[in-house]
Amino acid sequence: QVQLVESGGGLVQAGGSLRLSCAASGSIFSINAMGWYRQAPGKQRELVASITSSGSTVYADSVKGRFTVSRDNAKNTVYLQMISLKPEDTAVYYCNARGVVLPQSLRVSRDYWGQGTQVTVSS
């Protein structure tokens, strides 16, 4: 059983910083990509940033230059450093692990989601 455990959300003033962490636990052979999505009230879930096992990154245009995604492959952990936060960054942030391969099923890959962590940026 694979679980994604997120931490680091909270309330911060505009211009402030937060760092989110997400650790994947369980018996894992490999993870293709890990990343963060967010969903604001009344809006669809959107990609914020993702990083592959080789270090290739993708960012939403709205966060480029402000957010940095990083990953510790040995710990199956992904981080999201957020600076210069804006009120429009307020959302529930979800961790995602894509292409997770388990030792007992090397031919099968699955995607997993964390439960979400609230980030609120006050103006």
Q: What overall geometry do the principal axes of the alpha carbons give?
A: elongated
**Taking all residues together, what is the mean pLDDT?**
96
Low-confidence stretches: none
Radius of gyration: 14 Å
Count of individual helical segments: 0
What order do the SSEs take from the amino end to the carboxyl end, as H and E? EEEEEEEEEEE
Question: In terms of quaternary structure, what is this?
Answer: single chain
Q: What structural class do the secondary elements suggest?
A: mainly beta
Ends apart, CA distance between termini? 40 Å
Tell me the total number of β-strands: 11
Measured as a percent range, the helix fraction is under 10%
Q: Into which percentage range does the β-strand content fall?
A: over 45%
Largest sheet: 7 strands, mixed
Descriptive account of the structure:
There is one protein chain. 0% of the residues lie in helices and 62% in strands. The protein contains no helices and eleven strands. The chain has strands at 3-7, 10-13, 18-25, 30-39, 46-52, 57-59, 67-72, 77-82, 91-102, 105-113, 117-122. The strands form two sheets. Strands 2, 4, 5, 6, 9, 10 and 11 form a seven-stranded mixed β-sheet that branches. A hairpin with a 2-residue loop joins strand 9 (91-102) and strand 10 (105-113).
Keywords:
single chain, about 120 residues, mainly beta, four-stranded antiparallel sheet, about 0% helix, elongated
